[in-house]
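Much of what follows relies on a compact textual record of a protein's fold. A complete example follows; check for yourself that the lines match position by position.
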Amino acid sequence: MDYEHLRNELVSCHSSLSRRLQQINRYAMSHPNEMGMETIAVIAEHSEVPPSSLIRFAKSFGFSGFSEMQKVFQQGLVSRMNEYQKRVQNLNLEMSQLKEGDNSNLGNFIQGGIQALQSLRKTVTDEDLQKAASIMLESRVVHIAAQRRSFPIGTYLTYALSHLGVPNMLLDSVGGMFAEQGKTIRKGDVLLAISFSPYANEVLKLAGNVHERGIPVIGISESILSPLGLFSDVCLEVEEIEVFGFRGVVLSALMCLSLSLVVELGRQREQLPSSPSTEKSN
């Protein structure tokens, strides 16, 4: 079994695992490098489970023990290292061209933003964007839920979708009306929810309620096994990069992702066949 196969298994089997194994599964998906490099004792401590649970977790996926599963994570790590070695070299070259002194503040934030953008290449595929855009294309209204530091991207998305002529509604929670705004979501609509750890509880609650009603949810979060990802029909993963304790550098990647999603939606709209009334008027 290679790493991609294992990763798919972790996702598809998540709901059938016990609560304790789901806890380990979320950690494994969010920290694949640690799963490949750290000792079982360290992983157990960080994931807040006993080492015996990690062994049981590995055996539930057909491995003889945790060390055998860890080898698959190590193979995935080696593959990613080879793939990104050149990108790291390019990044180091770019950083070396910064003026001396910039590295203390501006340079570090620039580097964090670049890393977030580079990471986006491996976490979101063209197929992910196409699926998300297809769901939005088939919906009556796109409802956008984003609070706190995710709010700027939610605001941009409603701006871009409006210019594209896509009916949408930003759940802005003005006057504390977030829950009431969420009640306007109907069958035939879609919820586009954005949230990162520590998650906005109101967004998670809304996504869960909408998911239970059989209404599609498109999530943007740091992992498909995040609380938001588990409610999502498609989850666009954006890895967070922390600089000096700040995680705002992820906004550069989120803006890039948003532009890509809007452009893909526009492309699919252009490919729709013209209605008879439109052809007659032309």
